[in-house]
Amino acid sequence: MDLDVFVHSHRIEWDRLDHLLHRGRKLTGAEADELVDLYQRTATHLSLIQSSAPDPLLTARLTQLVARARSTVTGARRASWRDAVHFLTAGFPAAVYRSRHWWIPTAVLSALLAALMGWWIGTHPEVQAAIAAPEDLRRLTSPGGEYETYYSSHPAASFAAQVWTNNAQAAAMCLVLGAFLCVPVIWVLFVNVLNLAVGIGLMSSAGRLDTFLGLILPHGLLELTAVFVAAGTGLRLGWTVIDPGPHTRRTALAQQGRAALGMAIGLALVLFVSGVIEGFVTPSGLPTWARIAIGIAAELGFLAYVYILGGRAARAGDAGDIAAGERSAELPVAA
Predict the structure, then answer these.
(1) Does residue 72 come out as left (phi exceeding 0), alpha (psi in the -120 to 50 range) or beta?
(2) String of b and e for 173-209 (b: at least 16 CB within 10 Å)?
(3) pLDDT tens-digit series, residues 13-63
């Protein structure tokens, strides 16, 4: 295709489309019909140029022109409260439910690894010596030590905000870095498991494992579940790069990536609840059983939310992705 001849033949149509788009809502009926026709023609021109004679500047201009025309013809869709309600009651829990085959094994294996590593650290003094000097270990594990005062060392509100920010960043890293063949997700997950195992091992060696669990469980059940969901979703995203299934790799990644983005928002809300519990409940003067009961109630509430609302939405076809009508058209894929 001779690009110069093609541009000369169709420039008037493109300029006319641009002029009509600048008119906005002041179009007559005939002009509106003309805009739709020019939009369809220009979209075809763009496709021809991209496939036969790609020119960066011309492609960029026509892409912008087609996007503006499409928005005018189809109408720009605005988010509403209905979208937010649907996301919280169907989209997010459905996405978490659909990825359960990834995050539940991740949670089980991580818990077993943390318990095993904690036992190893707690029963091997030489490993404890490699972690810190004896006086530092006593400062960490003794009554009134750093493991206990950590949760009350700052004002509850600022501490909850700091915890929420740190956990949300860890979850976001798992979701975003999953596309890099799962390796960064495994590393982030291992660091979290290692920190938990060190606490279990050191406090159990000091005979104070019950105190440690009393401090961890109120917020840790929900917090770790959110991290495991993020890690499992990141691993699923990474596996999509390796095996995209019946879709093209680009389409499969787009679908999983959009769902992961929505899950990042939802998990930020879950971690906010966990941060509030860690900031206000964990260091409170409530009895240990009452603090743990609050943590268990929050965890059971989240699981019920996922399995009841999410399961119902998933069975109805919701995948946590945007509506089918708002997605780009998919090219046929050979079986």
Answers:
(1) alpha
(2) bbbbbbbeebebbbebbeebbeebbbbbbbbbbbebb
(3) 988 888 888 876 677 878 888 888 888 888 888 888 877 766 778 888 888
Q: Are 260 and 237 in contact (CB under 8 A)?
A: yes
Instruction: Of 189, 203, 188, give the one whose Cα is nearest residue 121.
Output: 203
Q: What is the pTM of this model?
A: 0.69
Are 224 and 295 a contacting pair, CB within 8 Å?
Answer: no
The identity of residue 128, as a single letter, is Q
Instruction: Compute CA distances 23 → 69, 206, 211, whole Å.
Output: 12, 77, 70
Residue at 28: amino acid letter? T
Q: Exposure pattern of 116-131 as b/e (b: 16+ CB <10 Å)?
A: ebbeebbeeeebbeee
Q: 159 pLDDT exceeds 60?
A: no
Q: Residue 38 is which amino acid?
A: L
Per the CB < 8 A criterion, the answer to whether 277 and 226 are in contact is no
Tabulate helix, strand, coil % of the chain (nearest 5): 80, 0, 20
Q: How confident is the model at residue 304 (pLDDT cuts 50, 70, 90)?
A: very high
- Supply the DSSP string of 238-291, one letter for each residue: HHHHH--TTS-HHHHHHHHHHHHHHHHHHHHHHHHHHHHIIIIITTSSS-HHHH
For residue range 58-114, list pLDDT tens digits in order.
Answer: 888 888 888 888 877 766 555 567 878 888 898 899 989 999 999 999 999 999 999
Query: Where would I find the H helices in 206-248?
Result: 209-242
